[in-house]
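Section 4.2 – Deliverable D4.2 (structural model, holo form)

The reporting period included a commitment to supply a predicted holo structure for the target in complex with pyridoxal-5'-phosphate. Inputs used:
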Amino acid sequence: MRKFNFCAGPAALPEPVLQQAQEELLDWQGLGCSVMEVSHRSPEFTEVAETAEQDLRDLLAIPSHYKVLFLQGGATGQFSAIPWNLLGGGSKSADYIHTGQWADKAIKEARRYGQVNIVASSEDRNFSYAPAADSWQESDDAAYFHYTPNETIGGVEFPYIPDVKSPLVADMSSCILSKEIPVDKFGFIYAGAQKNIGPSGIAVGIVRDDLLDRALPDIPRSLNWKVAADGGSMDNTPPTFAWYLSGLVFKWLKAQGGVAAMAELSKKKSALLYDFLDRSDFFSSPVSKESRSRMNVPFVLADEKLDKLFLEESEAAGLLNLKGHRSVGGMRASLYNAVPLAAVEALVAFMADFEQRNG
Ligand SMILES: *Cc1c(COP(=O)(O)O)cnc(C)c1O
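Output (structure tokens):
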């Protein structure tokens, strides 16, 4: 039986997508083998790759002067790829906003290749908010400006898009496809697939054409966006199954009404949980109201000795993976696109009952 899964990543996938993959697994498109067992250069797989790209372009309204890349090495690979690809155009420095653990990893990697200027940080309040734009110390000559629109671990989401001088780079691993974005405000958008796109093993990059000529001279071939763009993201063998499954998720998203419908649903789901947390004296959210994530909702119990019981009982009730990140503690419910409203309703009902019995 399928249960409600609140895992932060790899996360829940839409059930109809898994069903289709199951039905097609042994004999895909009448070829007598699975999608994993054909050449990535076959006409059948080429169609998968091209359709996935077109559907993603449709979903996010990606302008034609942007390339869509299907990459390997996860979002973490891009922490390295970004400085490699963008610090060879003159400026050897980059601006970063520090909002938590993922931003920190991106910053540490960039420091190996250039100078990093921290324009703003929310460390003073334990990374529980998104810094306001008027507090920034933006550089005049940065090669790019990097931020993390949704911090998956802290549960902090920027309520606005930074308006900056240099090309804006965004790690959208945990919020891509959850609301409409003006792609042309960005120089590079990237996301590991395993939260809001598909299975792990593939990452999506969306890069403005004019940023493809700024790589450092010794850039490793496998990190080079230009090589990926020129080779249709097939310079080496791509993760074909992950690409195929991501394509099925894109089709599913379109059938649900696209990104606008997901935005509405994500508001509804997260509001249901936050409203409950705010009414409760037993549970609470550690995140500043204006920066609360629609995707990842950390919450704590007033008495942390009850954490273990909460996790045992919630799992027994069919609510999976609510344990908070090891560095934060408490609980976290991830409400990505594939998590239905019914899952959040079941979670809130369970929490109300748990509070009544233990509060
Ligand atoms: C999960 C996550 C990552 C890491 O993704 P990998 O694909 O495991 O490298 C990076 N940034 C954010 C915001 C994430 O949520």
